[in-house]
Structure formats: structure tokens, C-alpha cells
Amino acid sequence: METGIPGVIVPAATYRLQFNKDFTFQAASSLIPYLADLGISHVYASPYLKARGGSLHGYDIIDHNSLNPEVGTEEDFARFVETLAKYGMNQVLDIVPNHMCVESSENLWWQDVLENGVASARAGYFDINWSPIKREMTNKVLLPVLGAQFGKILENKELSLAYQEGSFYVWYYEHRLPLSPESFAQILSHRLDELELSLSDENREAFEDLHSIIGAFERLPSGNEPDETALIERTREKDVTKRRLWKLYNESLPIREFIDRTVDIFNGVPGNPASFAPMERLLLQQSFRIAHWRVATEEINYRRFFDINALGAIRIELAPVFDEVHRFVLDLIGGGRLTGFRIDHADGLYNPVKYFHQLQYACFQKVWNLGNLQQEGTPEADVSRERMTQTYQQLLDSNPEFKPFYVLGEKILLQKEDIPREWTIHGETGYSFINTLNHLFLKQESFGTFDTFYRTFTGIQDTFRSLLYQKKKLVMYSSMSSELNTLGHRLSGLAETNRHTRDFTLYSLIKALVEVIAYFPVYRTYTNSLQVGETDLEQINQAVDRAQKKARGIDPSVFDFVRDVLTLRFYDEMTDGDKFQWLDFVMRFQQITGPVMAKGMEDTTFYVYNRLISLNEVGGDPESFGLSITDFHSCNLERVKSVPHGMLATSTHDTKRSEDVRARISLLTEVPDEWVGAVSRWNRTNHRHKKLVEDEIVPNTNKEYHLYQTLVGAWPLNSDDPSVFAGFTARIQEYMLKALREAKEHTSWINPNVSYEQGVATFIDAILSDRTFRDDMKLFLGPLAQAGMYSSLSMTLLKLTCPGVPDFYQGSELWDLRLVDPDNRQPVDYERRAHFLGQLKRMEEEAGARAVAEALMEKMEDGRVKLFLIRQVLRFRRDHASLFRDGEYLPLEMHGKAEHVCAFSRSSEDGEAVVVAPRFFMELTGNGRRKPCGSETWENAFLSLPSSSGRYRNIFTDDCYEVTNRGLPLADVLQVFPVALLAKEM
Question: Are residues 141 and 70 part of one domain?
């Protein structure tokens, strides 16, 4: 159908850039020529809307409708966009529709809520429970920002009243808390009699003005359940009265002195507890309650992003909120300045299906207007809009999955989950590919050795699943009990409406919910109507069945009721209103299971269960161990059918360790006996460096095992450089500190055990200063590091050629041995990378691709070989766009060395390409004794091709091969380079 708009723009390759005060639009603009030369089509930009001051990631947004001034000005942004266009590039933008930073005085929405409570025009924008369990908190919002108990903070004079620009505020360090206009009267009436007696006749008019102002504040329309007219009137009156007070303050010296002195009195006198009573009474009159940060665990009444108090959830499901949040970014689409979105934390959405449809329609409208060049407000625009609406509906009717704009959702898929078909997106952000690819490079036969040794060495007998169950419960009780209590009270309210369930106690309902969530097998379900889908039913029943079977001391009928509600198995006598109350509960339940899974698995169990830490990756399943080449092909064939344009990642800003660290650690499965021997030896050698902390040897063997794997993965290639190794020691100490706190066993972020943490840090410093251990580690690591580079090349080739859009995390085009953030957010040396790229181009022009490949294989440590591979493939992708965007995927058969090579072809009208990606390089190199090239490695192995004749060119060497009946000999194809991409010559 002709729509009058361009088709969806699918990136050829994306490059993730982390914008912040240290990497600005100007810095990105200077980088564009390099990225274009590399072959990148789209910058994949981290959020760059206005965020909290000093933000290094941009997810703590305070204004969705302006650029982050720390990243650059509008002029800087315009130059960035112009530079992209100049080099034929565009951008995919990471946006945050779920939450905002609520601990910044620059968040005007939140400031309005704090000032006006339920009377705020923005009160409904945030997901706040204005009628919480604690009645004293009715129509108030809890602010858990204090570093100690309220009374101590108050009497330490850490809370400070101030009068600024016509409003009263209470300051707590950087937190500015606006006071309600009604409470201004309480301040201004304090000592009013004294003021009246002290004024001369010439100041009587100023006093009368002040008296009138106090009355005006007292008469403001109530903020409790105001109608729209009253709300508008209240807003107008408070603003007028504030201006009157500010004018009087600036024009009357006695009034100014009176207000300033009153402020001083309210601020109290240290050592005189009674002097703080006025401030305490004042704070009790506010629409917020300021409290110790620990109170949030049990009493916070606004929904958060996970358990982060600073990030308050917004109700994007409401049309006004959707429009406000997306106005600026949709205008960018309307101006042709971006062609794709990455939606952060899709599982946090109340109704993902509705959201993605709304987003696609809004994008379609903007792209339509851009394509038809209609100006808003003109008769032509009205006609165009009507035609656009009709066209969109026609397209949607003919294809319910119509996706006119490139959209990715950050979604973690578990247990063979698929992205819900109803989501109008092009795929997720690459986590599933990361884990599929990682498993391909694991030696499945080593499972028994690794499992037995881990249990023996550490004494841990729990399975990953049982640990996950325990840690999810820990998270619910330690940091999300407020959310569970609120959910439990909602469920109790539902139970009260039926004679068969009204006797269920609140405690039993909350406990049953905890058990069900702890056993929930996926992040969440997606029920959004009175009909529950088959997949959701299966997940819910699985969780309830396991909880009902395992739980002790809970009436089984309580679980039956929970099951009935979650599966919307309505009772006969229920009204439509009752049914929708159940549905609302289910949708809120769905918003909780995701954060609990994320915190329990990614941020806890992944730091406890250390059998093979390369498997402990976002979206990963550490209980699985390896993947056959056949199964890998099956995953790719399914990707062609379902998400051909989803993202293919190997490292992201959220991965627990980079691609090259992961590749090295996975190689341990090829040398299981050597690994067991090395760890046993290191444990004996390093025992003398352990310390006794609180009657416990530090670190224990589980943490020690985690540490040794981390050292193997991240050990620098140039470790002989003293300055490099000193920095490495500090990095490992910082990483292990995070790992210890995330594990929540001996220490945590909430309750740090400094002695234990220092004991581990001292151990790390001691073993990395111990020449015996260092020499032993280097000897063990030598062949592993070499094989790790080969594995990385093979993984990178697969990312570049499998169905989907390859993404590169900033800096990963050279060897990337970084760990989890903040380690992976260090500045990238782009000058070095650009220099290398220019050098490679000159080398190829002067000597040809084969000579370049041979030279790079002789000096792999500097990473140029990886850069070379990426550039060669990206140039080929650019010249054969449809081959990878729409091409067929055909697994190819190997004869000889079959388990060592993943091979397939991609074909379309644009041509054919054959991918040859070896694996298990420790075996192929004889534990590092030779290169994985030529006849010594590949002997008589050959590859069968789709056709029995033809000529193919190796894009890495420019060598050409004629196909025989037997196919192509691997010894020829991989003669000088360890991987191959063969282009069929037409």
C-alpha cells in the first residue's frame, strides 16, 4: 500500500555512546567521521535529556522536554545532528518513559507535587498511593532522604527553612523541599502580635498588607479532592498571593526583618530541643513527610524504579503523561533527527502493549508529516492528518503487527520466552543473543567437572534455582517490603468482597504473594484485559503450584484465591466493577515481579552462584551449560521469522562483564582439569594472605573462586607495565567490593561491613603483589589469553552476520577487558582507535588485505585485528544491505572438525555470503602451541556449500576459491586468518 511516507529505517550497525558531562555532543560530533569510516550507520545514544546534575548515565531524567545542559547546548546538538547527516548516519535514542529523578530540585513536576500534594496538576503524573496503609500518611508522600533519624537531623539543624523568590522552602543539603502555600500562614503568623506592637504608624499599611496576605493563604481552596475549577482557582490565588508577599518583602524593611527573624527562629538553636518545635509543627502540615532513608523499605508510598528511592515511577499509561513525556523526542522524529528508539525497562510499563501501539502511532504521525511536509495549523495539515489516520488504520487492519518506526524494547527473556507478539517493536536490545552466543562457546562435556569441583571447593550445595528463590525473598523483605505490603492490602481488599475469602488474614495473603513471586519463572506476565493469555496462565500456574506445594503454614485455599485473582477466574456474583478491580491488581502485580526478579537474580544471585561466572549475564541461565551448533542455528532461524531486525549485542552498559572477558572465562571449559589444578594450587599458595575477620576467614572459598575467574577474564594483555598493573589492582578491588555488596551475604549497600570489605581488599592487594602467584597466573593465562582473542574474533563475526542489527558498545572495537559498571564507563581512547583505523586503511592500500591480515595475526595484543575484522564486515554489510537485512539464513554442513565450526550462508537478490566461525580454540591451537590456521589445524576438513560450483572471495584476505564437488577445504579458507566471510562473486 502506498502510504506517502518512507519505510521503517533499520540500522545496518549501531554504536552505543554514553553521553554525560565528560562525553558531550561536541565530543560525539568529532567522533562521527571515525564511526562512519568504521561502517556504523547509527549512533545508539544513551539518554541525553535533562538529567540530575552530574549524572553519568542519563536515566535520572528531571525534564523530558529539554536537552541535558551538561551534554551540550541546542547549538551543539544541532551540529551533532548535522554531522551525522553529513556522513549519511542517524541515531537511535534510548528513552526513559517509566520514571524520573525525584531527588532534584530542578524536577519541576515533582516540586509541584511536594508543594501542592493532591491539589497539584502533576499529582496524577506520578504513581503515588495517596491513601497508604499508614493513615497518618493520607494525602502525603514519603521522602526517605535523611541520613539519620528525623529527630536527630532536626536538632542537628541539618534542616533549614529559607524564604527565596516568594516561597518558603526547607533545605536538607542539596534537597530543596517547597512548603505548601497554606502553611505560609503558620510561618507568617508566628510573632505577628509582636510585629504589630513594634510598628510605627507609617508602617501600618505594610502590616495590613501582610495580614491580608496571611488571610489569602488561609483561604486557599482545599487541596483534598478538588474539582478542576477549584484547582485552577487555587493555583491562580496561590501564585498571586506569593507575588504579593515577595513584593512586600522587598519594599518594606520591617516586614523583611520580621520574616528573616521568624525564619531564624524556626531553624532552632542547637542544644535547645524545644526551639525546634515550630519547625516540627510546620513540617507536619506539609504534603510530604521527610524521613530516614531506611524507612523507604517498609513505608514508601510512591512506586520506584526497582528499589531506587531517587527514581519515582510516572504513569505513562495516562494520555496527558504520554504526550508530555514524548513531546520533545517526537519532535526530533518530525525533524528527521532520529530514526529509532530504545525503550528502557519495558517490563516496568503498566500496559506495554498499549504503550507500544501509542508510540508507533505517534511516530507514524510525525514521519507522515515529515514525508508530506505539512505545517501544523493549516487546512492542508488537517486534510493530511485525516488521511494519515485512515491510512494507519488500514495498515493496522491488514497487519496487526504493523511497525512503522524502528523501536527496540529493553526486555529480558527467560526460559525460552519470546517477545509478546502484540508488542509492536522490532526486538529486544541483545541480551538473548549475548547468552546464546556465549553458550555456543562452552564445552558441554565439562559440566560434570565444573559442577563437582565448585560444590567441593566452596561447599555450596544449593542449585541456582534454590538460591534464586532465597534471594528473591531476601529482596522482597529487605528492600521492597513496602511494595509487597501495599499489594497485600489491595489483595486483602479484594478478599473482603466475597464470603468465601473474607477470613483470609492480611499476613497470610502477603506471605502467599511473597512465595508466588519468589517462584515466578519469568520477569512478568502481560495480562491487560479480562482474558488471560495461554502463556501467562502457564507461568502463573507454575509459580502458584510450586509455592503451594513448598509453602508451610499457609492455608492452601489462600493460594487458590491468589491463583483465581491472577488468572482472572471470576466468581459468578461479581460485578463488572469487581472484575476490573481484579484486573488492576493483576497489572500492578505484574509491575512488581520484574523488579524482584531483576534485583534477586541479576543483582544478587549472580554474585553468589559462581560455578562459571561467564554464564552470570543479564538474561542468562547459569544452570544451562553450553549449546550445540545445531541449536544455535535453530535460534537464528527462529530469529529470522520473529525478530529479524532485533539488536545483536555482545557488550552493553549493563552487562556484568565485557565480551572479551566472557570469552576468556568460557575457554576454561576446554581445560577443566588444568583449571581445577590451578585453583587448588592458588588456594594453597594464597591461604597465607587471608585474614580472620569476626571469627571468619576472609575471603571464603566462594568469593575466592569468583575472584580467580575474574582475574582470568580481565588480566591485562600488557600486565608487565607497572602502571597498568597498579590500575588493574584498584579495578579488581572496586569490582569485588561491588560484588560483595550485591551478594548481600557478608556486607551490603544498605549495611556495609567495612572490616569484611577491607579484608577482601587486602587479600587482593596481597596476592597481586605476590610474585609467585602472579607468575603462576601469567603462565596459566598465556595460551588462554591467546585463544580468547581468537574466540572474540569468531564471536564478533557471528554478531556481524547473524540475523539482526549488530551493536558495538563504546570502545569494544579493540580488546575490551572491562567489568561491570562503573568499570565499563571509563573514558575511551578514540584518538588511538582512529589512528589504528587510518593505519589499517593505508596498510591495505599499500599491501592488500592478505598482507594486513598476516601482519595483524603476528601482533594481536594491540587489538587492531579485531578492528580490522569489524571494518571489513561492516563495509561489506553497507554494500550488501538487503543481504543482511532481509536475507535467508541457511546452516551449512561441515565434514571433519564438525563440532569446531559454526558455518552458514546469508542469501538474497543482493548476493550470497558464507560465514565460517570456529570455536573451541584451546583445542584447535593445541593449548596455544600453534595458530588455528592452515592444514596443521584443519587437516582434511571441508565445508559444503549451497551450490556445487562458483567462486568465493574471502573479504579478510581477498583470496578467491573455486568450489568443487566436495565444497571448500577449511585449510585454504582459514589459511592465514582464523575466521572467514566469503562473498560469492556474481
Answer: no
Long-range contacts of 483-489 (CB under 8 A, 24+ apart): 483/303, 483/592, 483/595, 484/510, 484/513, 484/514, 484/517, 484/592, 485/133, 485/298, 485/510, 486/129, 486/132, 486/133, 486/301, 487/513, 487/585, 487/588, 487/589, 487/592, 488/513, 489/133
Beta pairing, strands 691-693 & 406-409:
unpaired
Q: Which amino acid appears at position 299 of this protein?
A: E
Which pLDDT belongs to residue 379?
A: 65
Pairing mode, if any, of strands 980-984 and 911-918?
A: antiparallel
Domain of 974 in residue numbering reads as: 829-984
Alpha helices in 10-95 (DSSP H): 25-38, 74-86
> By three-state DSSP, how is residue 915 classified?
strand
For position 871, what pLDDT does the model report? 98
Say how far apart CA 959 and CA 854 lie, in whole Å: 13
| Reduced 3-state DSSP string for 135-149 | HHHCCCEEEEEECCC
Residue 841, C-beta contacts closer than 8 angstroms, at least 6 positions apart: 37
Tell me the mean pLDDT per 10 residues along the chain, length 986.
62 98 98 98 98 96 98 98 98 97 97 96 95 92 96 97 97 97 96 89 90 94 72 91 97 95 97 97 97 93 94 97 98 95 96 96 88 62 77 85 93 90 95 97 98 98 97 96 95 95 96 98 96 96 96 93 98 93 97 97 97 96 96 97 96 97 98 98 97 94 98 93 89 98 96 96 97 96 97 98 98 98 95 98 96 96 98 96 94 95 94 97 92 95 88 97 89 97 92
501 plus 354 within the same structural domain: no
Residues 353 and 484 in one domain: no
Q: Which three-class secondary structure state does DSSP give residue 729?
A: helix
Chain Cα centroid distance, residue 815? 23
| Helix, strand or coil, per DSSP, at residue 927 | coil
Say what the pLDDT of residue 374 is.
56
Q: Is residue 760 part of a domain?
A: no
pLDDT of residue 686: 98
The answer as to whether 89 is a domain residue is yes
Same domain for 80 and 124? no
Is residue 163 domain-shared with residue 244, that is, in the same domain?
A: yes
Give the integer Cα–Cα distance in Å for 403 and 339: 13
pLDDT at 3: 44
Grid cell digits, residue 211: 495580614
Closest by alpha carbon to 92, among 410, 565, 544?
Answer: 410
Beta bridge partners of 161: 170
53, 159: one domain? no
CB-CB neighbours of 969 under 10 Å: 20
**What CATH number is associated with residue 368?**
3.20.20.80
Reference 363, options 398, 397, 402; nearest CA is: 402
Domain boundary among 275, 301, 327: 301
Q: Which of 409, 430, 452 is the last residue of a domain?
A: 409
Q: Do residues 482 and 558 share a domain?
A: yes
Number of domain units in the chain: 4
Q: Which residue from 918, 956, 889, 941 is spatially nearest to 794, judged by alpha carbons?
A: 918
CA nearest to 896, candidates 941, 938, 944: 941
Q: What are phi and psi of 38, to 5 degrees?
A: -70, -30
Residue 968 sits at φ, ψ, to 5 deg, of -125, 130
Same domain, 33 and 147: no
* pLDDT at position 227: 74
Classify residue 885: in a domain, yes or no.
Answer: yes
Measure the CA–CA gap between 85 and 907, rounded to whole angstroms: 30
* Cα gap 142→288, rounded to integer Å: 6
The per-type count for the chain, helices as H runs and strands as E runs, is 36, 28
Looking only at Cα atoms, what is the longest distance across the chain? 113
Q: What is the distance between the alpha carbons of residues 116 and 648, in angstroms, rounded to a whole number?
A: 46
In a domain, 425, yes or no: no
- Show contacts of 946-951: CB within 8 Å, 24+ apart: 946/890, 946/892, 946/905, 946/907, 946/912, 950/984, 950/985, 951/984, 951/985
